[in-house]
Amino acid sequence: MLIVHMLAQAAAAATPEAVAAPQEGVISYPPAFFAAQQPANAHEMLLRLPGFAVETGDSVRGFEGAAGNVLIDGRRPTSKTDDLEEMLRRIPAGQVERIDLIRGGAPGIDMQGKTVLANVVRRSGAGLRGLIAVANNHLSDGRNMHGVRLELSGGSGGREWEGSARYGYGNDDGGNIGPQFRIGPNGEILRRSFVQNESDGLQKTVTAAFRQPLAGGRLGLNARYFNEKWKFEEDNRYLEPAALGVETTDDLYLTDQTEFGARWDRDFGARTKLELIGLRQDREREINSIFGDLSGTQDFRLQRDTAETIGRGVLKYTLNDRLSFEAGGEAALNELESRTALMVNSAAVDLPAANVDVEEKRGEVFAKAVWRPTTAWTVDAGVRFEASRISSEGDVELEKTLKFLKPRLALTWAPAPATQVRMRLERVVGQLNFDDFVASSDFNTGAGVSAGNPDLDPEQAWVAEAALEQRLFGATLVLTYRHSELTDVVDRGPVEGREVDPVTGAVTVRYFDTPMNIGDGTKDEAIVNLTAPLDRLGLKGALLKGQYTRRWSDVTDPTTFESRRISNLRPTEWEINYSQDLPQWRMSYGVDVYSGWTETSYRFDSIREVKLHNAYVRPWIEKRFQPDLAVRFEFPNVTSRGIRFTRQVWDGPRGASPRLYTDDRDLGFGRMYYVRVRKTFGA
Question: Which one, 154, 192, 248, 561, has least CB within 10 Å?
Answer without folding.
Answer: 561
